[in-house]
Specification:
The protein has about 525 residues and is mainly α. The chain is built from 13 helices and 14 strands.
């Protein structure tokens, strides 16, 4: 009750960042296919009078997609967000937001010129006061309505192509639960038909950038509704953990004393209601999740299918994953081998990097281990452990980026599953973000991880790692080249000796006028090797 009261004392109504802006969720904007709201600072669309941005046509990627989705024109998420809007605000400089009223991640100040670097910390390194504040913030987000965003409760066709808007208000926490559901839901094909092999946030290259944006937006929302600009998401380092150490009433909720599938009544998370968990019901009715409450959070950690996930991930498995040099590999989905992304996501064996969808490793292992709301993809964000887990997954992604220092071109530009090419906009975010924009160091986005902030020596070692790794990969070629070089050197040395002996035998008395000494020497050295 104390944490609950703390939450409501922190209520501050400010703009938020999420999905469909309320000001654009109406017949006029949908029929015009335009979402360019005015910025409060000057009253002009996109803050154009203040040079913050302007209303422009959306430029969609024309790069070919992979074969996983064989349809066209049947899903509102195709070529996001063009089914709903084809004109949105394009912000200039460091400005961001659906009306260019905010700063890009990593910037602050009235004109968004001040650099900021915040640090995400291990939840067990927080003081009691800091931990209680984090829990209060979570509860506040669950109980305060989003001021600027709504969710869609029907498809564009069900909205009669915009003439019958179908939207609903939602609280800040559930807004993000709904976005995670919407990005991963099945395609409704009409009747009772659906297409399940589609996901705009998982099972493809965009998995890590998508969740990076998701956490950044979630973090910013908490900063706004609390007024705490220094807030960062804590992470749970689950490497080598023997059980769910955050699953206590002191942290994310303990086990119910009589029903192991529920949370302890001593935790206020036990009163939380989940949404968007009944995918089969939505599919059979050909409807979208409308954020209706569907019961309490379910969690029974460790009582999962041991044949699929025998334990939580180990440090050795994480280190092996980090050693993989390819970010992605064909076919760029859950069948990809030797792919860092697929191995970290958990569809490839964390000891061999070979795809094995009968097992769940690393990221997926944690979801399965929790054995409840977190174990079903579409509704997994209902459990607040989700943000702790994905913050740590993002830190592993960050370690890989720092170790291998990939160019942007490493992220696939074409032939990835629908929505996952480098220049595709991420579903269902408005303002718009491309996948490739978040394939870079977290420091450039304004945040770091406490356990990655190493002293200068460590940074130097981290700098050397990619070069040492490259040397290891080409070691056999280097040895081969050295052997060949030695043979060539020996042959040239022999040739030189032969030439010198011949020169000594040919005196100037034998052929004094046929050839000059300098020209003769040049004849013996035909190679510039």
């Amino acid at each position: 009750m104390l944490l609950f009261a703390m939450g409501f004392l922190l209520v501050i109504f400010q703009p938020s960042t999420g999905q469909f802006p309320k000001v654009c969720a109406n017949t006029q904007n949908l029929l015009r296919k335009e979402c360019c709201p005015p910025w409060d600072g000057d009253g002009s669309p996109c803050g154009e009078l203040s040079n913050r941005g302007s209303c422009q046509n959306i430029l969609l990627s024309q790069a070919p997609l992979g074969p996983q989705f064989p349809f066209s024109g049947v899903d509102d998420r195709e070529d996001w967000p063009s089914v709903f809007y084809n004109r949105t605000c394009k912000c200039e400089g460091n400005f961001m937001g659906f009306n260019c009223g905010e700063c890009k991640f990593g910037f602050s100040g009235l004109n968004c010129t001040e650099r900021r670097l915040r640090t995400r910390r291990n939840i067990f390194q927080l003081t009691t006061a800091e931990k209680n504040k984090f829990l209060a913030y979570l509860n506040l987000a669950k109980n305060i309505p989003s001021q600027d965003y709504v969710i869609a409760t029907g498809t564009y066709t069900q909205m009669k192509n915009g003439s019958n808007p179908m939207f609903r208000n939602i609280n800040v926490y559930d807004l993000f639960v709904w976005m995670h559901y919407y990005a991963s839901r099945d395609t409704l094909l009409g009747g009772s038909n659906v297409w399940r092999d589609i996901d705009f946030a998982h099972e493809a290259p965009g998995f890590l950038p998508w969740h990076r944006v998701f956490l950044l937006m979630w973090e910013r929302e908490i900063q706004k509704i609390t007024g705490d600009e220094n807030f960062t998401i804590p992470y749970w380092d689950w490497r080598d953990a023997e059980d769910c150490v955050v699953c206590t009433d002191e942290y994310m909720g303990g086990r119910h004393p009589t029903n192991p599938n529920l949370l302890s009544p001593a935790s206020f998370f036990s009163s939380w209601q989940v949404i968007c968990t009944r995918s089969e019901e939505y599919n059979s009715q050909q409807t979208l999740c409308n954020a209706t409450s569907e019961g309490p959070i379910l969690r029974n950690p460790g009582n999962n299918d041991k044949s699929r996930t025998p334990r939580l991930p180990s440090s050795a498995e994480v280190e092996f994953c980090l050693s993989l040099t390819q970010y992605e590999s064909e076919p760029m989905d859950k069948m990809a081998n030797y792919s860092f992304r697929n191995t970290l996501e958990g569809f490839a064996d964390p000891r061999t990097a070979i795809s094995n969808i009968s097992q769940s490793g690393l990221h997926n292992a944690l979801h399965i281990y929790m054995n409840g709301s977190m174990s079903q993809v579409q509704g997994s964000a209902n459990d607040p452990v989700f943000v702790l887990h994905h913050a740590f997954v993002d830190s592993i992604f960050e370690r890989w980026l720092r170790r291998h220092r990939p160019m942007l071109e490493v992220y696939p530009a074409a032939n990835a599953p629908i929505g996952h090419n480098r220049e595709n906009y991420m579903v269902p975010f408005i303002p718009l973000y491309r996948n490739g924009e978040f394939f870079k160091s977290s420091r450039e986005l304004g945040y770091d991880y406490e356990y990655l902030q190493e002293p200068a020596l460590g940074s130097f070692q981290e700098f050397l790692i990619p070069y040492l790794e490259q040397a290891r990969q080409i070691w056999t070629w280097l040895v081969g080249a050295a052997v060949i070089g030695a043979i060539i050197t020996a042959l040239l040395t022999g040739l030189i000796l032969v030439c010198r002996k011949k020169r000594q035998r040919t005196s100037s008395e034998i052929q004094p006028l046929l050839i000059e000494r300098e020209d003769y020497n040049n004849m013996c050295y035909q190679s510039n090797f």
